[in-house]
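Help!! Second protein's tokens look totally different from the first
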Amino acid sequence: MRKIMLLLFMYSMFTLRAQTDTNTVNQLNKLADVYEQQGNYTTSNNYANQALQLAQQLNFKKGEASALNNLGLIQYNQGNLSEALGFYTSSYKICKSTNYKNGMASFFCNTGLVYIDLENYNEAIIKYVSALKIYQAIHNEAGEALCYNHLGTVYAKQQKFTKALAHHNMALKIRVQLHDTLALADSYQNIGYIYYCKKDFNEALNYYNLALTTNLQTNNVWAQAYSYTCLGNTYENVNNQAQALKNYLAALQIYRQLNSIDDLVELYSSISQVYTQIQNYTEASYYKSEYQKLTEKLNPTKYYSTQNYSTN
């Protein structure tokens, strides 16, 4: 919060000379980045568009590329992959023409994420290795950590857990040195996931708790909810239903505030399952009913098909 207030103060000062000052573009882009990391995409999009318009007026190519990159990230985080690629590509063309190395590396990292979603893991690895080489050449440690983190994610998708853990730990080591709270939480979360996949649930809980503790130091409520969900899932796997419910319900409270329907559907199902396990059938029935209502709302055809199938 202190970082946002400082940026807003600086932005208000720069606004006095906004039409001629490229620093205003930089501050707008920083604000867009901060709000994007917190999951506030509407505000982030507003600042990124302001940065883009002003950068174009000033013919400030670096600022224009950064704004386009931020707009791509916003689209990606909302699941709009083709729109994201469009913004990324526009950003990359500017970066390449101006030899802006950080921007070129960001393009490779961000397109790598798209390839992960498309399950083209080999192409994703190529993108991340390209980005890593650039970040190493320009001594951008945060960028290096980001690449190691993404490579760890790809290897986990390929179930190469030893390589995944090694890369996530390389990212973690750098992020600890940089005192990057948001990135640290991400690393803890990812390492916890690797241990979860390896069915080492005690280590998974250790890292998920570290992730939650770190996320609670930020305003990223999406990450907080995700940490609670992961903890709930892991506690359920070790038959600690009390802790599973505690964490699921904490996540539920956040997702209700965010009106995140997809996440609510999964949580209602999980909570109903845990109540069934402890033979609290009243609560189990309630959450199953909530699950069914949302499922029907999301996909009526699929819901009724499932219902018909289950009764045969």
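Here's the second one for comparison:
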Amino acid sequence: MNKSRVLVIIQFLQLIFVLKGHSQTCNPTIPGADWDALVAFKPANSIATSAGSRGMPVLSIYDATSLLNATGVVPSQVNLDYWGVTISKMPEVNRKKLKPEELLSRIRSRFSTYFKSNLAKFQPLDPSDAPGWTNGVVGTLLLFRIQFQLVPGPKVERLAPVMLAHSRSTAWRFVTVGNHPVSGTREFGIRQRSDGLWEIYTRGADRVTSSAVDWPTASGIFEGGDQVWEAFQDAVAADIRSLGGQVSDAPSVHARYCWASMLARVPRPR
């Protein structure tokens, strides 16, 4: 089947999808500048080239020309989210109160344990990548196995490879690579708020990767991501409480915004 015929079929399905009340709307008002750096983020050429040589090219949010707006019926979206845990009392290990960087290091070392298996699993892409993840080596390739809901239909597993593209004591970033269903960047970190309290967080900015397979399941992809990161937030909070810490959920953001609005704020870097 040639590409033009595939596009016609996709457009027809898209129209039916909209007429049945499943329209993909977007919010034109970007909630602030906090996501700008993630949208503009580009990994170093050396590690991007290395990932490409392993068949895992970096997926740029600017190149995610999704079929969501192929007919002009549905606006192209960008997902922006923030999930945080506010810490009013730092946890202790061996009767020693953890420093902010030590807490984030603990979370990274236990990262895979914070995911519900019915929502997502996390592992090195290859056993040879395990030391790189442990030691925070940028360029390390990792893999999420994400469950998401088809619209309509059952849950399906989707492989979602990422690359560790930025690594510091207070934050790290994943960029999506290969056949990941979205294109973008996600950051995990710990930050001090203006009131002096610390907050463990994850913040993401991504768009559905251009694909005839991904288009009909866009809602499921984004909503599935919301479920994964909300559950992750709850698991991190429970871990901190188990060590004597005191936490509360920070206000979350998770919505689909108009890509045109974000692009006007953050044009593609030259």
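Reply: Different proteins will give different token patterns, so don't panic. DSSP finds seven helices and eleven strands in the chain.
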